[in-house]
Amino acid sequence: MEMKIYRVTDKEFLPYGKILDIDTKNIVEEAQKVEMPANGSIYVASKEEFEKLPIMNIVKNESFGGMPTQLGYCWGYNDTLNALEWHKCSEINIATTDLILLVADIRDIENNNRLNSEKVKAFKVLKGEAVEIYATTLHYCPIQTTKNGFGCAVGLLKETNTDLDFISGDKLLFCKNKWIIAHEDNSELLNQGVVGGIYGENHKICGE
Predict the structure, then answer these.
(1) Tens-place pLDDT, residues 31-45
(2) Which residue range is the domain that position 156 belongs to?
């Protein structure tokens, strides 16, 4: 079934996050220097070139209250839901290209760590727009709107999404401050040990 694609300016986005009124021009320009991968997507938790820009202090001080912060990047090619993750903090997304975010509410996860993909909604973010994604919002790799791929700067509390240095009894905890469930049809993530908690259609969005 084809998903309805909302805009982050629509009222439907209010439970999941909010638009930030910040100047993103410099980081969007810096992102144009990053080479696209041959295929798939790449995530770097902390990107030095981004963290030297004035926007780093804005994200650190205004979004995270002065807490140690990292500003990284997710870019490449993706058109499918595949998984959903969440953190115990907000996430700042700055679109360096047009992109689509697939999101759901953490309270829709059932007691057995299952989530019906019917609960997922799609929101388009335009190049240059910055949004705060709340800690209660499930999200994952952005979706491209064209065959040229996507780019998204990502601000988080420092060390989020980095390798665990302890053994956790929580089977959903995959990296530091990163809990994740995969779609049960995504063998790549299942083979990495991610719990297959999403059922229903593995949404695919075909761009231009």
Answers:
(1) 999 999 999 999 999
(2) 5-199
